[in-house]
Amino acid sequence: MSPSIWQLLIVLAIVLVLFGAKRLRNLGTDLGGAVKGFKQSMRDGEEDEQKSADDGESGRLGTGDDTSGDHRFEGEKGGEETESRR
Predict the structure, then answer these.
(1) Which sequence spans correspond to the domains of the chain?
(2) Inter-residue contact 45 to 38 (CB < 8 Å)
(3) Which of 1, 2, 10, 60 is 20 to 30 A off residue 41, Cα-Cα?
(4) What is the pTM of this model?
């Protein structure tokens, strides 16, 4: 059983009375802006992936970086020395 057009119009009228046209318009504008921002970030992500693929990066950790396996923050590097003294 799907709702008829009259039932949908009644529900729409009740929503308009409860929330008001201005609040619904603002809600629609905010929702549209959020969708537009999401689409833009998806496009940016795809462009970044294309650039990475064009540069020949394999996407694995350890390629092109000079960390030699030490992935700690700079402030954490001295932590082992103090722990070994305890």
Answers:
(1) 21-53
(2) no
(3) 60
(4) 0.44
